[in-house]
Amino acid sequence: MNQITTAGAVSRLIRELSKLPGIGPKSAQRLAYYLLRVPEEQARELAEAMLSVRQETRLCSVCFNVTDSDPCLVCRSDQRDPGKICIVEQPQDILALEHTGIYDGLYHVLHGAISPTEGVGAGDVRIQELMNRLQDGLVSEVILATNPNLEGETTAMYLNKLISPLGIRVTRLARGLPFGTELEYADDVTLTRAIEGRQEF
Ligand SMILES: [Zn+2]
Hints:
By secondary structure, the protein is of the alpha/beta class. It is built from 8 helices and 7 strands, in the order H-H-H-E-E-H-E-H-E-H-E-H-E-H-E. Helix 1 (2-17) packs across helix 2 (25-37) and helix 5 crosses helix 8. The protein is elongated, with a radius of gyration of 21 Å.
């Protein structure tokens, strides 16, 4: 009986782990059996870290980045130029751009990209919230830093059509980021060049 329950717990863990991105069934199995052997304290740490990342973080009500204070540190900072907003698809793209240390403006996280093939429309990402932010007339440049792939380009074109009539300068990260890649995986040198070399859309 006990053996059956244990096996059930292990297969439950394997099932949950294999839902994570980049973790196939084999890796899930390996991780599960590894976790079975770690000290209970370590397992508890991991479980608590997973729970608290959900409980103690929220989205910034201004830029929609993940934060534990609202507005987030970037939105609150007086060191950042409020005249520039850089549009990214995911919060982790901000990490990549901040890592270069070259950008001093604000951000806006769309939480996705327009994808007609996957049924993701403009209303499914945070475009309306962006348009609301642009109403105050403080923003003079919007930098489109969506991924250099089909969905990212579609989204950039859509945003350009909405934003350029407002008299706001719209720029796009320079080519040099290989097409089909994602921003979060770009290296610092490539990203720095892409930001510095950004061009009118
Ligand atoms: Zn923010």
